[in-house]
Amino acid sequence: MATISIVAVHGLDNNSQRRIIGLGMELQRLLRSQGFGSRAECRVLVVEGRVNVAGKTCVDPFAHFEPAGLSFAVDGVLWNYREFVYLAMSKPAGYECSRRPQYYPSVYSLLPQPLATRGVQTVGRLDQDSTGLLLLSDDGQFIHTFTSPRKRIPKVYEVTTRYKVEDAQVMALLHGVELHDDAQPVEAVACIRLDEKRLRLTVTEGKYHLVKRMIAAAGNRVEALHRIAVGGFSLPLSLPVGHWMWLESPELELLAQRG
User: Fold this and answer.
1) pTM given for the model
2) Is 127 a catalytic residue?
3) Which of 65, 135, 138, 157 falls between 20 and 30 A from 204, CA-CA?
4) SS3 label, residue 221
5) At 28, phi and psi to the nearest 5?
6) Domain 154-230 adopts which CATH fold?
7) What the protein does (predicted)?
């Protein structure tokens, strides 16, 4: 099992942390909240001496620590205590956005186990053959905001088509195309032809296979689909495919932008 090192908060040494009754959270509960197993499993981690506090072994699973600002390392990997987790992943092709994938590996297999254990979910989905920006979180309100059609959060895609993109197809996407299960035409917020067989398409809805169905309704076919932005946040070019990053306040503010 992993060796866990925790850096003390507010300069308190190990004994001081133990003496303050009611301060923060029990260590076993704190570890559980961060995805390091059940409370019993976290208790074993502590009792067996796998937990260090301020560089010293802590064998008391009931020791209390203030979570806010707490930093810790697992197997040399640094972590911060987080009430909620917000992530961006550069999704590769050939992965399903499901905890129970049917034909391809799950995107959750690309995350460290603690993040998967604590209940992080994809914010919407990308098909297994689609790539690009995928948001993940365990904050229900955040997930609702970025999946609700009423919020009209713009999502930007680069689309590679099977056939040459005609002017009439661009105009159809901008003015609205009819989908079989929708009484109202669905419009693209923006549609820019990048070259003969590539478009940059912005939509504000999140219906099933929406972009592929819109392109088909306009008279073409999607060969490749890559999401490059949500709100005002663009997938960083520096983020390798198959890797993820924490979303902090600056990125979350960009995500909330609608125009």
Assistant:
1) 0.87
2) yes
3) 138
4) coil
5) -65, -40
6) Alpha-Beta Plaits (3.30.70)
7) Responsible for synthesis of pseudouridine from uracil-516 in 16S ribosomal RNA.
Top-confidence residue, 150 or 243: 243
* Cα–Cα separations (whole angstroms), residue 56 to 5, 15, 192, 210: 8, 10, 58, 54
Burial class (CB in 10 A: 0-12, 13-18, 19+), 171: exposed
Q: pLDDT-based confidence at 259, cuts 50/70/90?
A: low
pLDDT band (50, 70, 90) for residue 23: low
The domains spanning 4-80 and 154-230 adopt the same CATH topology: no
* Single-letter residue type at 24: G
Residue 19 to residue 208: CA distance in whole angstroms: 55
Give the model confidence (pLDDT) of 158-203 as tens digits.
Answer: 999 999 999 999 999 999 999 987 778 999 999 999 999 999 999 9
Backbone dihedral angles phi then psi of residue 253, each to the nearest 5 degrees: -65, -40
Which residue among the candidates 127, 129, 138, 195 is catalytic per the annotation?
127
84-152+237-259 has which fold?
Alpha-Beta Plaits (3.30.70)
CATH topology of domain 4-80: 3.10.290
Residues 244/111, Cβ–Cβ less than 8 Å = yes
